[in-house]
Specification:
This protein is mainly alpha-helical. Helix content is 81%, strand content 0%. The chain is elongated, with a radius of gyration of 28 Å.
Length: 187
């Protein structure tokens, strides 16, 4: 054995580092839980509750602005003592309001996403606890913010862990944990 004595300041800094790494792991897991699970469900609930009203209000706004613009274009023709060309006016309005129509389509897509999220099967309370526990254990060992010198294999395993957690796939998370354990926690 070596008779090297480590400086007390080094030992104290090392202890502080390990304590902070543990606290960071807990905060990262809490953040990920809030963003990947609770945030997704809250966003879906919000879109379901307010999405249709928001879309209907925006659609009414677009229609009123479109009519206002049509009036402006017709008035421009009349100001020049010309007969309004309604076909040209309609084309101009359609082109000017393409961006608004795209936003309406995005709103409809968001509502479809929210419906899919809310109808997706959910984990039971026990399954939710288990996936969180597995995620926390793997995050402590694989999260790149806690383990900046990880290997490519560990980074790949972490990406799979994130995907499994984000999608709520308990079976995949259990399989990834078994792979991690089989590799001797040195992924």
């Amino acid at each position: 054995m070596s008779d090297i004595l480590l400086h007390p300041k080094y030992l104290e800094l090392r202890r502080q580092y390990e304590e902070l790494a543990q606290r960071m792991a807990v905060l990262i897991c809490t953040y990920d839980e809030m963003v990947l699970h609770e945030g997704k469900i809250l966003s879906a609930e919000y879109v379901q509750e307010f999405g249709e009203l928001d879309r209907a209000a925006y659609e009414a706004y677009v229609e009123s602005e479109s009519l206002r613009r049509k009036i402006d274009l017709v008035q421009a023709y009349l100001n020049r003592d010309a007969k309004p060309n309604m076909e040209t006016i309609e084309r101009a309005i359609k082109k000017e309001f393409e961006e608004y129509q795209e936003k309406l389509k995005d709103m409809a897509d968001q509502m479809a996403w929210a419906k899919a999220v809310m109808q997706a099967p959910r984990l039971s309370i026990q399954e939710e606890k288990k996936i969180k526990k597995l995620y926390h254990q793997l995050a402590k060992e694989l999260h790149p913010d806690i383990n900046p010198d990880q290997t490519d294999a560990a980074a790949g395993l972490w990406a799979s862990v994130m995907h499994a957690y984000k999608s709520g796939d308990l079976e995949q998370m259990e399989a990834l944990y078994e792979i991690f354990e089989a590799q001797g926690k040195t992924a």
